[in-house]
Amino acid sequence: MPYPTDRPAVWFVTGTSRGLGLALVTHLLNRGDHVAATTRSVERLLAALSDADTSNLLPLEVSLTEETEVRRAIAAATDRFGRIDVVVNNAGYGYLGAVEETSDADVRAMLDVQVAGTWNVIRAVLPQLRAARSGHVMNISSILGVLSFPGWGLYCAAKFAVEGLSESLAAEVADFGIRVSIVEPGYFDTDFLTDHSLALASDVSDAYPGIREMIRTHKAMPGSQPGDPSRAAEALVAIARQGSGPLRQQLGSDSSGLAEGKADALKAEILAGRELAHRTDYVR
Question: CB of 85 within 8 A of CB of 98?
Fold first, then answer.
């Protein structure tokens, strides 16, 4: 079944009290859609939406790493709105630090939220989407799920994992009429690079001065990012409304340009290594 046009669509969105998630929820409510919005703080979410009509909002305080809580949230959304049409896995946070400086606890915390949390939502919602033979799972990755930069190793590891999960999922559920999209934003004018959403490695050394400088540059960036969160929200609705579309969609001219460059560089590397690759086959 395509995106509904004869009734309000029902969206289940994670990570909604800040950033792109908040921009999306605001846009959906203004459109008259129905929204189940998960957050770690319902109070913060409602404060951020103080100027919006929240009559079609179901705010849900959920720890996405707790599978039982996620299943309860999916059930609550279904009970309130009757169904779920679009799932947006958006929850997450940034992390900056050299690979060597990244602690075991930081690795596990990041992967728990970005990967296990996304997986929990997908597992909980798929039975009803399969039964309805419709629905759309939209996983918010990043341009850093396509390529990596120094200092972003942990965040990239999580987003690369989301990309692999999503690509497999798309092939598995296509026969059930379920679409999967991977969304790859660039730099948007949100609080992603502030202390609210960006964690830093705590046990650092003087071995990586370039990363220290990169962190200082990023901490000074808020307010200068090229991406408009409101337009990103409009783009997410446009993706959902498409009857079909690419598996991956970049958001932002910076993301688009970097992805194109990565594709060109990857093809060049593959072609340069083709002869050696072929030499490792059995000679028959």
Answer: no
Q: Are 181 and 90 in contact (CB under 8 A)?
A: no
- Reference 192, options 80, 64, 56, 96; nearest CA is 96
Distance (Å, rounded) from C-alpha 223 to C-alpha 220?
Answer: 9
Residues with catalytic roles: 141, 155, 159
> pLDDT (tens digit, 9 = 90+) per residue, 20-63?
999 999 999 999 999 999 999 999 999 999 999 999 999 999 99
Other beta carbons less than 10 A from residue 57's beta carbon = 21
Contacts for 77 with CB less than 8 Å, ≥ 6 apart? 10, 12, 36, 58, 60, 84
- CATH homologous superfamily of 10-252 equals NAD(P)-binding Rossmann-like Domain (3.40.50.720)
Is the pTM of the predicted complex or chain greater than 0.85?
A: yes
Please report, for the chain, the start and end positions of each structural domain, with discontinuous segments joined by +.
10-252
